[in-house]
């Protein structure tokens, strides 16, 4: 990813769902932040515990804790970006920071990094997400052509976590299904299989999910429905029981 690091501060905070906290962060250093990066991600650099300032040297002896977050919105006039943090589901460096964050708190933003999905030329898409990747879906829905048939499945554990996406109303072939389940290993896999059974064209599949779900759905798509690897774009946004540093999750 682009290694430029920009200092920033928290501008505003809103709890938009039981498990989602939205932070708008701003900086004069965002003056040239590229506006075409919806769906892309940034690395959020946080202060060390008990500190206010952020270490912005990525090669420092004791570098800042950092986590990846997908961009929800970019405001090039006010020099802000909007990020959503999953909270109240698990403990971790970024989750704990976001729960306690307040306007004026300092952080830094590295990136943006590349979008996972770059092929916007297909006739059929199947996009599968959870709360960690919902903003990738939000960004891509604004870029996919109106002529494409797009099915989106977003699984959440609580119906109150269903949020509004920035869809384009004229794109009537774009369909969004929120799947409320506490057993995505069963319900989500069944839903994906049902969709794949209905298609006459091979879809391009985008997945941003927990690692074991990615592997399961990828295997089904390849082995049962002959979807070629070139038409599967997948990313394990998180792994059950493991934090972003590869250590056991708290």
TrEMBL record:
**What sequence ranges are listed for the domain FAD-binding FR-type?**
3-119
Q: Which InterPro entries match?
A: FAD-bd_FR_type, FNR_nucleotide-bd, Riboflavin_synthase-like_b-brl, SIP_FAD-bd, SIP_fam, SIP_rossman_dom
Q: Which residues form a coiled coil?
A: none
For this chain, the family text in UniProt reads: Belongs to the SIP oxidoreductase family.
Q: Please state what the protein is called.
A: Siderophore-interacting protein
Q: Which organism is it from?
A: Pseudoalteromonas prydzensis
């Amino acid at each position: 990813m682009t290694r430029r690091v920009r200092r920033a501060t928290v501008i505003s905070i809103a709890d938009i769902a039981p498990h989602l906290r939205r932070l708008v962060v701003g900086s004069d250093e965002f003056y040239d932040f590229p506006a075409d990066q919806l769906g892309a991600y940034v690395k959020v650099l946080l202060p060390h515990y008990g500190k206010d300032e952020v270490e912005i040297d990525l090669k420092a002896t004791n570098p800042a804790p950092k986590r990846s977050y997908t961009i929800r919105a970019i405001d090039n006039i006010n020099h802000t970006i909007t990020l959503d943090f999953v909270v109240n589901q698990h403990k971790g460096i970024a989750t704990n920071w976001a729960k306690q964050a307040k306007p004026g708190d300092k952080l830094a933003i590295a990136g943006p990094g590349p979008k996972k999905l770059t092929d916007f030329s297909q006739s059929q898409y199947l996009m599968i997400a959870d709360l960690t990747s919902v903003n990738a879906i939000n960004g891509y829905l604004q870029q996919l052509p109106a002529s494409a048939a797009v099915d989106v499945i977003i699984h959440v554990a609580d119906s109150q976590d269903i949020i509004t996406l920035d869809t384009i109303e004229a794109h009537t072939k774009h369909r969004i299904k929120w799947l409320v389940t506490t057993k995505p290993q069963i319900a989500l896999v069944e839903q994906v299989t049902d969709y794949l059974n209905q298609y006459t064209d091979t879809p391009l599949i985008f997945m941003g999910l927990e690692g074991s779900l990615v592997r399961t759905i990828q295997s089904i798509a390849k082995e049962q429905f002959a979807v070629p690897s070139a038409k599967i774009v997948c990313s394990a946004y998180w792994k059950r029981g493991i934090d972003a540093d590869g250590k056991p999750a708290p």
